[in-house]
Amino acid sequence: MSDHTAGSGLGQGAQHVHRTPKLEFYVYFALIFLVAIPFATVAWAFALLRDRHLPVHGPLARAWREAGAITPAIFRP
After folding, report:
1. Largest Cα–Cα distance in the chain?
2. Contact call for residues 28 and 71 (beta carbons, < 8 A)
3. Which pLDDT tens digits describe the chain residue by residue (77 residues)?
4. What is the pLDDT of residue 50?
5. Burial of 63 (0-12, 13-18, 19+ CB in 10 A)
6. C-alpha distances in angstroms, 77 versus 10, 16, 24, 74?
7. Which one of 25, 29, 36, 46 has the lowest number of neighbouring Cβ atoms within 10 Å?
8. Which residues contact 70 (CB under 8 A, 6 or more apart)?
9. 3-state SS of the chain: helix, strand, coil percent to 5?
10. Structural Rg of the chain based on CA atoms
Protein backbone atom coordinates (compact mmCIF):
# COMPACT_ATOMS: atom_id res chain seq x y z
CA MET A 1 0.00 0.00 0.00
CA SER A 2 1.31 3.47 -0.80
CA ASP A 3 1.65 6.38 1.58
CA HIS A 4 -0.54 9.22 0.26
CA THR A 5 0.47 11.62 3.02
CA ALA A 6 4.05 11.96 1.82
CA GLY A 7 4.60 14.82 -0.59
CA SER A 8 1.21 16.43 -0.07
CA GLY A 9 1.80 20.13 -0.08
CA LEU A 10 4.53 22.10 -1.75
CA GLY A 11 7.21 20.64 -3.95
CA GLN A 12 7.09 17.29 -5.64
CA GLY A 13 3.84 15.43 -5.36
CA ALA A 14 1.77 18.60 -5.13
CA GLN A 15 -1.36 18.39 -7.24
CA HIS A 16 -1.97 20.79 -10.09
CA VAL A 17 -4.48 23.42 -9.08
CA HIS A 18 -6.83 24.63 -11.81
CA ARG A 19 -6.74 28.41 -11.86
CA THR A 20 -9.28 30.73 -13.39
CA PRO A 21 -7.91 32.37 -16.55
CA LYS A 22 -6.83 35.94 -16.05
CA LEU A 23 -7.32 39.00 -18.24
CA GLU A 24 -3.91 38.44 -19.84
CA PHE A 25 -5.02 34.99 -21.04
CA TYR A 26 -8.11 36.47 -22.70
CA VAL A 27 -6.08 39.23 -24.36
CA TYR A 28 -3.64 36.70 -25.82
CA PHE A 29 -6.52 34.47 -26.88
CA ALA A 30 -8.25 37.35 -28.69
CA LEU A 31 -5.06 38.42 -30.47
CA ILE A 32 -4.22 34.88 -31.58
CA PHE A 33 -7.83 34.36 -32.68
CA LEU A 34 -7.76 37.53 -34.80
CA VAL A 35 -4.46 36.53 -36.41
CA ALA A 36 -5.70 32.98 -37.03
CA ILE A 37 -8.89 34.04 -38.87
CA PRO A 38 -7.24 34.85 -42.24
CA PHE A 39 -5.15 31.66 -42.18
CA ALA A 40 -8.18 29.57 -41.22
CA THR A 41 -10.18 31.18 -44.03
CA VAL A 42 -7.52 30.29 -46.59
CA ALA A 43 -7.31 26.72 -45.25
CA TRP A 44 -11.11 26.46 -45.34
CA ALA A 45 -11.26 27.72 -48.94
CA PHE A 46 -8.50 25.31 -49.96
CA ALA A 47 -10.36 22.39 -48.36
CA LEU A 48 -13.53 23.52 -50.12
CA LEU A 49 -11.82 23.51 -53.52
CA ARG A 50 -9.94 20.28 -52.87
CA ASP A 51 -12.84 18.22 -51.53
CA ARG A 52 -15.63 19.99 -53.51
CA HIS A 53 -17.95 20.13 -50.51
CA LEU A 54 -18.25 22.33 -47.45
CA PRO A 55 -16.00 21.34 -44.56
CA VAL A 56 -17.79 20.44 -41.34
CA HIS A 57 -16.36 23.41 -39.43
CA GLY A 58 -16.15 26.92 -40.81
CA PRO A 59 -13.17 29.24 -40.68
CA LEU A 60 -14.20 30.85 -37.39
CA ALA A 61 -14.51 27.49 -35.65
CA ARG A 62 -11.10 26.50 -36.98
CA ALA A 63 -9.54 29.80 -35.79
CA TRP A 64 -11.20 29.40 -32.39
CA ARG A 65 -9.79 25.87 -32.07
CA GLU A 66 -6.30 27.06 -33.04
CA ALA A 67 -6.40 29.91 -30.52
CA GLY A 68 -7.68 27.49 -27.90
CA ALA A 69 -4.71 25.21 -28.53
CA ILE A 70 -1.98 27.85 -28.77
CA THR A 71 -2.90 30.19 -25.91
CA PRO A 72 -2.66 27.63 -23.06
CA ALA A 73 0.72 26.52 -24.41
CA ILE A 74 2.02 30.05 -23.86
CA PHE A 75 1.00 30.01 -20.19
CA ARG A 76 2.26 26.53 -19.33
CA PRO A 77 5.07 26.53 -16.78
Report:
1. 60
2. yes
3. 666 665 555 555 556 667 777 899 999 999 999 999 999 999 999 999 999 998 889 999 999 999 999 999 998 87
4. 94
5. buried
6. 16, 11, 15, 8
7. 46
8. 32, 36
9. 60, 0, 40
10. 20
